[in-house]
Amino acid sequence: MNERVDVLIVGGGPGGLACAADLAAGGVRVLLAERKAKIGAKVCAGGITWNGLIRLVPEALIEAAFPEQHIVTGRQRAVVAEANPIVATVNRERLGQWMAQRAAAAGADLRTALVTARSAPAHERAIRTLMNWNIEVDEAMFLGGLPKGEFLREFEPDFFFDDQTGHVDNAAPHVPSGHVAAGVTNGP
Ligand SMILES: Cc1cc2nc3c(=O)[nH]c(=O)nc-3n(C[C@H](O)[C@H](O)[C@H](O)COP(=O)(O)OP(=O)(O)OC[C@H]3O[C@@H](n4cnc5c(N)ncnc54)[C@H](O)[C@@H]3O)c2cc1C
After folding, report:
1. Is 139 a member of any domain?
2. Ligand 1: which of 42, 51, 63, 97 to mutate, most ligand atoms within 8 Å of CB?
3. CA 31 → CA 19, 75, 89, 96, 136, distances in Å?
4. 69 occurs within a structural domain
C-alpha cells in the first residue's frame, strides 16, 4: 500500500469504485476504504437500463433481461414492449467484485474491515469463519468487550444485527438494529 495518497475515497459502492478506477487509471494515487468485509453486497434490485450502463459491464454479469415493462397504477395498465431488452439485472455482489477488481487493476488500493466485540482468545472463531467463507479483510477491529454503541455511532453502519439483546439495546440509539433470535446465546 502507498504510504501517501492523493485521494482517499470512503465507500466501495459503484460510485466510489468507478471514481477509484478512473482516477487510478489517470495516474492518481488512490486509497479506497470500505467498512464492509466484502465489497459489493447491497439491498438493490440491480436493474440497469439497456441503452445506458449495460454497455459498461461485461455481458457475463447480466442475470436477466426484460424486453417488456408493465406499468400498473390505480388508473392505468400499460405494457411497453421493445424488440431489444429495456432493462437488465445484475447481481450487486458480483458487480461490486468486478468493479473492485477493475479499480485494483488500474492501481487503486482497496481496504476492507471487520469490526467485532470479541477479543483474544474468542477472536479465533471470527477469523476461522472468514476463512471458511473465503472472505479476506485488510483490517480487523476486536473491541474486546467494549460497548458497541458509541463505536457504531461513529462507524455509521446501514444496519446492525446481534444475537445478544444487551448489544442491540446498546446500539439501537445510534443505528437501526435487529435482534438475531438464534445463535450461541439464544440456541437454535
Ligand atoms: C431497495 C433498493 C433497490 C434499488 N434498485 C436499484 C436498481 O434496480 N437499479 C439501480 O440503478 N439502482 C437501484 N438502487 C439504488 C442503488 O443501489 C444506489 O443508487 C447505488 O448503490 C448508489 O451507489 P453509491 O456508490 O453512491 O453508494 P452505495 O452503493 O450505498 O455504497 C456506499 C458504500 O460506502 C460504504 N460506506 C459508507 N460509509 C462508510 C464509512 N464511513 N467508511 C467506509 N465505508 C463506508 C458502504 O458500506 C457502501 O459499500 C436501489 C436501492 C435500493 C435501496
Report:
1. no
2. 42
3. 11, 50, 29, 16, 17
4. yes
Residue 175 covered by a domain: no
| Helical residues (DSSP H) of 62-133, grouped into ranges | 92-106, 123-132
Report how many domains make up the chain: 1
Q: Which residue shows C-alpha cell 476461522? A: 128
Ligand 1 pocket, residue 46 CB under 6 Å: yes
Rounded Cα distance between 93 and 109, Å, is 19
Query: Does residue 155 lie within any of the structural domains?
Result: no
Stated pTM of the model: 0.71
- Secondary element (H or E) of residue 166: helix 165-171
Question: Is residue 64 helix, strand or coil?
Answer: strand
Confirm or reject: Cβ of 47 under 6 Å from ligand 1.
yes
- What is the per-residue pLDDT across 75-129, written as a single tens digit (0 to 9) for each? 999 999 988 888 899 999 999 999 999 999 999 998 887 767 777 777 788 888 8
Domain that holds residue 83: 47-90
- Ligand 1 centre from 57 Cα, in Å? 17
Whether pLDDT at 184 is above 80: no
Q: Is the CB of 157 under 6 A from ligand 1?
A: no
* Residue 84: C-alpha distances to residues 59, 66, 77 (Å): 15, 8, 21
Q: Is the CB of 175 under 6 A from ligand 1?
A: no
